[in-house]
Specification:
about 325 residues, alpha/beta, TIM Barrel, about 45% helix, about 15% strand, binds flavin mononucleotide
Length: about 325
């Protein structure tokens, strides 16, 4: 696939930028396991990003990249840091990367925005990006409206640049499905939370393992901010109650402020915001990163062998 060929990877996988989680340690673990690790910069300052890139360099000699949340007030400076530090791939989210694309391309950086609709994909293609990550609403974190099942083939059919599929990938059968639907690689978030090296609190791991499909919900669709897929807990219930009461924006901000950190660093079951995708309901084991990826692709090979020998259309 394009992703593994372009970056010389064992697996056609890029890790999602996950604020407070996709640290140097995490990105290096992903890259050392044969995929492309990304440092998720969230709201970090330029100095924090530089320090994390340098730390990752000490932990791996494999390529890794940086995810930029364009809502970050330090985006401009961070966009220079990735150039200065010799990063070769940048994914972007939550905004328009247009002001930085020429500068990044001159520095030999591949630019891959995360998008959730065909119109966004068409706009990004016009800007000259190298590929897009098409993220279906099965994903954990901030989401759009389309599903991977629809978005991936829609993008693959209508764009001339490679499409990387994100949202809802945790099984070998998802890999085969994505390949058939036309994607050229996968961005994983939730499944990688189950890796031993993932720097989340044990309380977060516990929530991930016990999450059933009906316990994962979306808040923010009713006007209270950005739609976000999270686990149903007291915080999520409060948010949903606020939506029913049509509360002002400040009320949502008050409960969500620092809530992801409360989940990631302290495993706070009441006030933490446990972002996770629907695939959490399929995850029942914590294992080393290398095994997470090896098992996923061994399963994909087994699925492929199965559909070649069974008459699946009968
Ligand atoms: C805990 C968590 C935090 C996330 N934070 C971010 C983020 O800061 N920036 C971003 O672009 N995407 C973020 N995402 C989305 C991931 O990068 C990725 O696209 C998504 O998880 C893929 O779908 P999946 O969860 O079904 O694997 C987050 C996802 C999770 C699960």
């Amino acid at each position: 696939m394009w992703l593994s060929e372009k970056f010389n990877l064992k697996y056609p996988v890029i890790s999602g930028g996950m604020a407070n989680i996709s640290t140097a340690v995490f990105a290096a673990a992903v890259s050392n396991a044969g995929a492309l690790g990304m440092i998720g910069t969230g709201a970090w300052t330029a100095d924090q990003v530089r320090a994390e890139i340098r730390k990752a360099r000490e932990l791996t000699d494999k390529p890794f990249g940086v995810n930029l949340m364009l809502m970050n007030p330090h985006s401009e400076e961070v966009s220079d840091v990735v150039v200065e530090e010799g990063i070769k791939v940048v994914t972007t989210g939550a905004g328009n990367p247009a002001p930085y694309i020429d500068k990044w391309h001159e520095a030999g950086i591949s630019v891959i925005p995360v998008i959730s609709s065909l119109s966004q994909g068409e706009r990004m293609q016009k800007l000259g990006v190298d590929a897009v990550v098409g993220e279906g609403q099965e994903a954990g974190g901030h989401i759009g409206d389309s599903t991977s099942m629809i978005l991936w083939p829609l993008l693959a059919k209508n764009l001339d640049i490679p499409v990387i599929g994100a949202g809802g990938v945790a099984l070998g059968s998802h890999i085969i499905a994505g390949r058939v639907l036309g994607v050229q690689g996968f961005q994983l978030g939730t499944l990688l939370l189950s890796a031993e090296e993932c720097p989340i609190h044990d309380g977060f791991r516990e929530q991930l393992l016990k999450a059933r499909d009906s316990q994962i919900t979306v808040v923010g669709r009713a006007g209270g901010g950005m739609p976000t897929r999270i686990m149903k807990n007291p915080l999520a219930r409060k948010y949903i109650q606020f939506e029913k009461e049509n509360r002002p924006k400040e009320d949502y901000e008050q409960i969500m402020n620092g809530a992801l950190k409360k989940a990631v660093f302290y495993g706070d079951k009441n006030e933490g915001c446990f972002m996770m995708g629907l695939v959490a309901s399929l995850i029942d084991e914590i294992k080393p990163m290398e095994k997470v990826l090896a098992d996923l692709f061994a399963e994909a090979e087994a699925e492929y062998a199965r559909i070649k020998t069974e008459d699946i259309l009968a």
